[in-house]
Amino acid sequence: MDFRIRKDARAWFKGLDSVIGTSAKGFEYYYFCLCAGLMSGNKLSVAASECDALIDHYPTEYKAKGRILVACMISKELETLGIDVAERSRVHETIRTLVDPHALSNLSDYGMEQMNGYAAGGFEVLSEGISEPPRVLPTFLIEYTQLLAELEAEAI
Amino acid sequence: MQNHIETAIKSAVKERGQPADLAKKLTAWMQALSVGNDNIDDIQRAMQRVSIIFETTTTDTKGR
Amino acid sequence: MAADFFLLRWKSEGLRCPDHEIKLLESGDNPRGVTLIQMPNGTGKTTTLSLLRATLSGDAVEWTNTHLQSFRKRQSSATSGRFLVEGVFDGKRLTIILELDFEEGKASYSTTVGSGKKTGFLPPRGLHRFLNRDFVRLFVFDGEEAARLLDHKYTNAHDAIDNLFQLKFFDGIEQHIRDYWAEQTSQATALAGKGLTQRRNRVDQLQLQLKTCEAAYALAQAERDRAQDQLNKKTRKFDQQLKKRRNYHEALQLAETALADAKTVVQQQAQKLLTRIRDPFALSAKTAADLLALRANLDRVKLPESTSREFFDELAGEEECVCGRPLTQECKTHILSHASRYLGTEDVVFLNTMKSDIATMMGTDPAAHANELQGATRQLLEHMRDEDLAWTNRDSVRSKAVDDDPALKKIVAEIAELQASADKSAAEVEKYENTDESEENICGIAVLKKRLSEAERKVAEITHTLDLKEKRDVLVAIVQAAQKAARTAISEQTVNEANERIQTLMPMNRVRISAINKCLVLEDQEGGSMGETLSVAYAFLATFFNSADNRFPFVVDSPAGAIDLEIRARIAELVPRLTSQFIAFTISSERQGFCDHFLAKRSGTQYFTLFRKGDTTLERKARATKGSAETEDGLLVPGAKFFREFQLESE
User: Fold this and answer.
1) Domain coverage including residue C421
2) B43, C112, C1: which is closest to C121 by C-alpha?
3) A51–chain C Cβ distance below 8 A for any pair
4) What is the rounded end-to-end Cα distance, in angstroms, of chain B?
5) Do C206 and C106 belong together in one domain?
6) Which of A67, A106, A108 has the most C C-beta neighbours within 10 Å, making it the best mutation to test the interface with C?
7) pLDDT per residue over C176-208, tens digit each?
8) CB within 8 A of A41, min separation 6: which ones?
9) What does the pLDDT average to over C63-82?
10) Is C266 among the domain residues?
């Protein structure tokens, strides 16, 4: 199963197409949305027809961070479900349903759905917090880090 | 210059997973037009060629 | 397929221009390299060229009666006229005669190849693809159009390539594919007649909408490119003018260098920050702390287990447990049913690696990475402020220069206007590039195509022709892709050949063709003079009709037309070398700089002067010249002397 980015998110980021130099621009934008979603806890279910399929693996720039991203999602899911760490069997079950070590993304289909859900919800948060679609990379990065700082403050 | 046309057709056909026969038929049509053996405005002839071309094209949908 | 074609002669009778016959031979059947024909204004130069084009292209059968009548000889009772062109194609004589019947208002042709005369415009097979309106215009050429090859508002260089190299046939093939599908679906039975009609109407409506938008988009793009091009030119002019202001030159250079440096630093720092952002644990101290906590907690609850699911699967296959007790079937079933509670080996490996990644990448201080990211953000902000300052400084130097100089002020005002125009054009283009799929978007071409495809699918569904539709889509995609790829390859080859020709013939010429889009796109056009630029336009044309593949004559009307004297000499030097048969029509005012070049330097050139009767002195002089030919209304005089001395009082 693929990482999927909302079509409107893809369009929102298109001003950066000429300045983002990664091997997979779409995934870079997906990552921005995902982190905003994970930090805010905002998860949305979006129909496949409203999304563009990206890739089923982590591109070069993110290869080493793949397991960390999975860890972030496990952590968030446990927190969202209110599962205490001492509830070993529930922790075990949550991990079992989210992870598929055979997949290039290390995510099961269900796990990928959740990841995509956080990315979809994250775009809502992003586009509300940064009113204008980005055109200049340095400006966007400043606004993005400021937004994440606000989300962290809300979460604490 | 005709080579460019032939190469372009072959490449486009291959990229879309279509049989090499299809490229042959399209190239043959272009060749006939360019030397004057066929006339693009001859509808009857064109439909004959197009019918063969459609038959040579493959799709994923079966029995529809 | 190569084509070798040159003109032997043409003859005009009963038409608006004076009756005349021009022979273009050197000796035997060899064409003269250069022929100059001087025809004063009002003689019918334009008429002669139009007839030459029409005879060579077969175009006259499509003329309206009004247009046809415009070729009738004034104050003459002749009911018909005749224009004959004789040439040689691949060693065989070819004669095409255009007859204009002024009473019936009709044009007709006859063609003789070798000895066989046939009714109709029937050039030999190898030549017919060149003898059409679009290509003939390139070798029977209006010299004032040379500059227009460089302006996309006036020309489409792609069309020249499409016509010459048969790429237009791709359009015809695509249309036949679409027509075939339309015909097949119209024949198919519908499940429900009304449903089919509605769906078909939707397809028709969307097709029309798409066609309209595509046309408007093309225009909008051309306008945007034109506006941006003008803006760029004006901005460059401003920069050049500014640099000439010595007082500000040094200060400006310093300011621009500082600005460039500041921009570079910002870009570098932005990349650094982006690299840091790609570490999820750097985004916030809480995220990092949560990851460290997850790792610690997994350790605490002993996840993953040291024993994996496979251990229990294997155990269930044994006769004895690890403790030594015999395993009954009941025990085995129980073990297997609970084994799923345990993680598989790969799950264990993954979790252990994940925990290891957390430890390795993050260290023990959850705030460290977040602090680093914040530091990088602060630095970027500082550098951006520095860049802003550098901009302000640069702009202030420019403003000072502008305030002190009205000429510069004027250019700045013009730039502001052009910027507004460019922005407006860009917004118009964006309208057609809108990918928003809401119903309000009725211009976005990609969206319209998607809607059309869906509407066609619905038609196909109801008529059980989905398979045909898919085939049609694949075939159309193939034809379009092949056309685009062929055009690119041929354009590149043409550009290379033209540039090689320029290099050989004009090595000092700085200007080269970089690409062919709607017009010729030149490298370093700003650095080139008008003469250099025009030379390139002619070299491009010549690539079509004088190459390894093809040889055609080059007939040019007013090659020196509206051009400076210095450039005329350059064109005169260059153009005959581009082809094996060069024929130029000129008037006496164009002699200077252009014809003089031939008169002074080039032997072997053939000269004709054709003029209407009416000036008795000239007529006497003409009759006294050896070889002159007289008709009812005109005189044709050969020779350089008469050519050089010819001056009609009215010119």
Assistant:
1) 192-245+405-464
2) C112
3) no
4) 40
5) no
6) A67
7) 999 999 888 777 655 546 677 888 899 999 999
8) A76, A79, A80, A155
9) 90
10) no
Whether residues C499 and C584 fall in one domain: no
The Cα–Cα gap between C56 and C43 comes to 21
Write the residue in B15, B54, B62 that is nearest to C471 by C-beta.
B54
ipTM metric? 0.95
Q: Is the minimum CB–CB distance between A68 and chain C shorter than 8 Å?
A: yes
Is C136 part of a structural domain of the chain?
A: no
Cα separation, C374 vs C379, in Å, equals 9
In which residue are the tokens 């196909």 written? C460
Please tell me if residue B26 touches chain C, with a CB cutoff of 8 Å.
Answer: yes
**Interstrand relation of C34-38 and C606-612 (parallel, antiparallel or unpaired):** parallel
Token digits for C334? 């129980």
The DSSP bridge partners found for residue C106 are C101
Summarised one tens digit per residue, pLDDT across range C270-325 is 999 999 999 999 999 889 988 998 888 888 777 776 666 767 777 788 888 888 88
> Rounded to the nearest 5°, which phi and psi values hold at B33?
-65, -40
* Per-residue DSSP letter, C589: G
- Using CB atoms, list chains with 3+ pairs below 8 Å to chain B: C
Euclidean distance between CA atoms C346 and A66, whole angstroms: 16
How far apart are alpha carbons A111 and A78 in whole angstroms?
13
Residue C27: which residues within 8 A CB-CB, separation 6 or more?
none
pTM summary value: 0.54
Instruction: Report which of C543, C553, C550 is spatially closest to residue C25, judged by C-alpha positions.
Output: C553
C512 and C545 belong to one structural domain: yes
Q: Can you list the residues of chain B whose pLDDT is less than 50?
A: 62-64
- Per the domain annotation, does C229 fall within a domain? yes
SS3 A70: helix
Half-sphere exposure of C497 (CA within 13 A, CB side): 19
- Residues C36, C598: contact at Cβ < 8 Å? yes
CATH number at residue C44: 3.40.50.300
Contacts of C478 (CB under 8 A, 6+ apart): B9, B12, B13, B16, B18, B22, B26
Locate tokens 């085939």: which residue? C471
Question: In chain A, what residues touch C295 (CB-CB under 8 Å)?
Answer: 71
Residues C651, C641: Cα–Cα separation, whole Å: 19
Number of H helices, E strands in chain C: 21, 18
CA C530 to CA C380: how far, in whole Å? Answer: 47
Q: Which residue is closest to B22 within chain C, CA to CA?
A: C475
Closest C-alpha among C136, C109, C133 to residue C121: C109
Neighbours of C68 (CB within 10 A): 19
Placement of tokens 């869906």 in the chain: C454
Contact C464 B2 (CB under 8 A): no
Same domain, C454 and C342: no
Provide the chain A residues 71-130 that lie in CB contact (below 8 A) with chain C.
Answer: 71-72, 74-76, 78-79, 85-86, 88-89, 91-92, 95-96, 99, 101-102, 106
